[in-house]
Structure formats: C-alpha cells, structure tokens
Specification:
By secondary structure, this protein is mainly beta. Helices cover 5% and strands 45% of the residues. It contains 1 helix and 9 strands, in the order ββββββββαβ. The strands form 3 sheets. A 5-stranded antiparallel sheet has the order 2-3-8-7-6, covered by helices on one side. The protein has a two-stranded antiparallel ribbon with strand order 1-9. The longest helix is centred in the last third of the chain and has 7 residues, at 118-124.
Length: 139
C-alpha cells in the first residue's frame, strides 16, 4: 500500500457501487445516483499497531461524512484530474438518503458539461452503472 509522502499528505481511497443512476435527465445533462452505502466493504486499512496494513470490513458512516465542500466539486473520469478532458462536470448536491434495500446512502446530483452530454444519454440507456467516490478517512 502507498504511504503518505508527508505528515499532511493523505491516502485517497475509493469506493464503487454498481447500481447506475436512479434518474437521468438527458435534456438537462443531469443525473442522480447512489455513491455509497453503509454496507461493509472488504479493504486494507493501516494497522493500529503501525507499519503494516490489515484486511478489514470498512463501514463508511453517512453521518461521519463532511459534505461542506461537496457543492461544486468536479465530476471526474476515473478519479483523474490531469487534463481538462477528464473534467466531465460538477456536483450540484450530495445528500444522505434512506434507500430501501441499502440503508443509509449518499446520493449525488451532478451536471455534465455540454462536451460530455452524451454520457447522460448513455446512462439513461443503462450504460455506465459503476460510479465511485474518492475519500480520505481522518479517524
């Protein structure tokens, strides 16, 4: 596992949910989709004893997520911010929502740039079901 390069550097983790958008408005270039749920995901986390990583079931609690900077965040292709062509659009809102079969979830409302508008039409047709979120665990 990569180590932070400085005491203030953070390791960014990702979490994917293969569910596709819950809605897509092609004309507006917008979509809503579930980003995360509170279901456990098997991952590698730093050992509390230091040094190594251990395999663990990680649960991201919706109540522990800082959404204060969510509005206006970039919507990226594959978590890559190198080059303007990777900026697909922006996040208009992220909210907590109770979903019947998943429990407490984070739902994203996003808007895609005109140059990438075809992505929303493809989502409406059932393509691109995998969305993921990048996050840093502070504690």
């Amino acid at each position: 596992m990569p180590q932070p390069t400085s005491p203030t550097a953070a390791i960014i983790s990702t979490r994917a949910l293969s569910r596709g958008p819950s809605s897509a408005v092609v004309e507006a270039g917008t979509f809503e989709a579930i980003l995360t749920s509170e279901h456990p995901v098997r991952t590698w986390v730093p050992s509390p004893c230091g040094g190594d990583y251990i395999e663990a079931d990680e649960v991201l609690l919706t109540s522990g997520v800082d959404l204060s900077r969510a509005r206006g965040m970039p919507l990226l292709d594959s978590h890559c911010s190198f080059g303007l062509e990777r900026y697909l659009g922006q996040v208009d809102e992220i909210r907590a929502e109770l979903v019947a079969d998943l429990g407490e979830c984070l739902v994203i409302c996003a808007r895609v740039k005109l140059s990438h508008a075809g992505i929303v039409a493809e989502m409406a047709e059932g393509f691109h079901p995998n969305l993921s979120v990048g996050y840093v665990v502070h504690e």
